[in-house]
Amino acid sequence: SAEASASVVFENLKKCSPKCLSLLLENISGLTVDDFIVEVIPEIDVAVVTFMKSIDTEEFVKKCSQHKRVKEFKMTARLLELTQTIKVENLPDNISRDYITVYFESPRSGGGLVSDVQLFPKENSAIITFSDHKGNT
């Protein structure tokens, strides 16, 4: 079977504050606030929840779609797509492609085999592509 993402995207957060969302996540998952990370992206009215403890995210998304409060808030939940590419921002000036490659291939950094690095010096950012999605953690 396909590997499920450890992250869930919540959309349409207008009626649910970040604190309310955290409480809702605790209620639905049975976990505590220390077991997940919530990143709110207000520009697009979504939050990405990454579970630090092992959880069946597919089952969690099903529970969310059936939960009374989630329906009342008109929110939706879906698995975050697994990707092989990430964007890294706020890089130091004059960082080298080789340094980025070695850093993101380090198991200590949660990395994996890097297949490509595109540097954007004016933005102090880079696009890193891994050989598979397991490197982007």
TrEMBL record:
PARP14 second RRM domain sequence ranges: 4-81
UniProt superkingdom: Eukaryota
Pfam family, one: RRM_PARP14_2
Gene3D superfamilies noted in UniProt: 3.30.70.330
Protein name as catalogued: PAR14 polymerase
Organism: Pitta sordida
Gene: Parp14_1
